[in-house]
Automatic annotation (TrEMBL):
The species this protein was found in: Jingyaoa shaoxingensis
InterPro entries named among the record's database cross-references: Anti-sigma-factor_SerPK, Anti-sigma_F, HATPase_C_sf, HATPase_dom
Entry-linked Pfam families: HATPase_c_2 (PF13581)
Protein name: Anti-sigma F factor
Key word Disulfide bond present: no
GO MF, one example: protein serine/threonine kinase activity
Keywords: ATP-binding, Kinase, Nucleotide-binding, Serine/threonine-protein kinase, Sporulation, Transferase
Enzyme nomenclature, EC number: 2.7.11.1
């Protein structure tokens, strides 16, 4: 039987809390003995998900963001949820360079970065109900030196 562990966070959708979320999830994943590259990958993907919730989901209004992390075997699962405006067309929103805020110099690369740095990415959203981003990463795939 494999060991599992989990944690949940809830925090205000303030830009200053994005770094808190990164540190909290990075601290949680240390039990898997990740490489610095693996930690950086997860922190980058998480940062994009939290920033999307703040900027797009809540449109810079202060509401709650929820993060759940689950570890089983050597796999870290991270779930980021907001209850904001939601995404009308998830497939379109996941296209590189697509942004709903070009006037704010948004690059439209958030989902592309999440896909690049994690092993799996799933996005579920509904207009007026919010968005949930699920990400998975296997830790320890590389031979340690």
């Amino acid at each position: 039987m494999s060991e599992t562990n989990e944690m949940k966070l809830e925090f205000d959708s303030r830009p200053c809390n994005e770094s808190f979320a990164r540190v909290a999830v990075a601290s949680f994943m240390t039990q898997l003995n990740p490489t610095l590259e693996e930690v950086a990958d997860v922190k980058t993907a998480l940062s994009e998900a939290v920033t999307n919730a703040i900027v797009h989901g809540y449109q810079n209004e202060v509401k709650k963001i929820h993060i759940e992390c689950h570890i089983q075997d050597q796999v870290l699962e991270v779930k980021v949820t907001d209850y904001g405006v939601g995404i009308e067309d998830v497939e379109l929103a996941m296209q590189p360079m697509y942004t709903t805020k070009p006037d704010e110099e948004r690059s439209g690369m958030g989902f592309a970065f999440m896909e690049a740095f994690m092993d799996e990415l799933e996005v579920e959203s509904a207009p007026g109900k919010g968005t949930t981003v699920w990400m998975k990463k296997r830790i320890g795939r590389f031979e340690r030196k």
